[in-house]
Amino acid sequence: MKVTKDTVVKFHYVLKSDEGDIIEDSSKSDPVALLFGHKNMIQGIEDALADKEAGAEFSVTVKPEDGYGEYLEEAIQRVPAKHLQGATKWKPGMVGVVNTEQGQRQVTVLKVGKFMLTVDTNHPLAGQVLNFDIKIVDVRVAEEEEISHGHAHGAGGHQH
Ligand SMILES: [Zn+2]
């Protein structure tokens, strides 16, 4: 079976930076279960998985525009310290969560003041060229419930 819209594809991946450093590696846990064709993953990965079958192993390089976007200077913002969740004492480099109109967002702390923090709201991988080594473990037809929820269920997917 090929990866097409409304299939669930399970795959392992290793994500490396352009310098070759490993950023993420799924091999220590369950393979990722992705409901394909529902924009649950960056475009570069969906494009790479399309029409592949179980057993396929391949590498793909994803540019920022097909990944987590370009790095935006204007995404650096000052926020009141009380709005940042995840710790009580902040230091530059720590990652916290702020609630925005688009939902929760991970931010990286750049500067710490008494009441205000300077944070970077860019995705940590924004602006980076991403190199994925992918191995497809399984492809199956999605269940109706998964399609109506917009995500895969079970190990590697949503558990609820
Ligand atoms: Zn669900």
Please give a structural write-up.
The chain has 2 domains: 7-68 and 126-149, Roll (Chitinase A, domain 3); 73-120, Thrombin, subunit H, CATH 2.40.10.330. Helix content is 8%, strand content 39%. It contains 2 helices and 9 strands. The protein is globular and about 55 Å long. The mean pLDDT is 95. The structure holds zinc ion.
Quick recap of the structure?
With 160 residues, this protein is mainly β. It has helices spanning 43-49, 144-149, and strands at 7-16, 22-25, 32-35, 57-62, 76-80, 95-100, 103-112, 116-120, 130-141.
User: So how many helices?
Assistant: 2
State which percent range the strand residues make up: 35-45%
Q: From the helix content, strand content and strand pairing, which structural class follows?
A: mainly beta
User: Measured on Cα atoms, how large is the radius of gyration?
Assistant: 18 Å
CATH class descriptor name of the largest domain: Alpha Beta
List the helices and strands and how they pair.
Elements: E1 7-16, E2 22-25, E3 32-35, H1 43-49, E4 57-62, E5 76-80, E6 95-100, E7 103-112, E8 116-120, E9 130-141, H2 144-149
Antiparallel strand pairs: 1-2, 1-3, 1-9, 4-9, 5-8, 6-7, 7-8
The structure holds zinc ion.
Which descriptors apply to this entry?
160 residues, mainly beta, Chitinase A, domain 3, Thrombin, subunit H, 2 domains, 5-stranded antiparallel β-sheet, 4-stranded antiparallel β-sheet, 2 helices, 9 strands, binds zinc ion
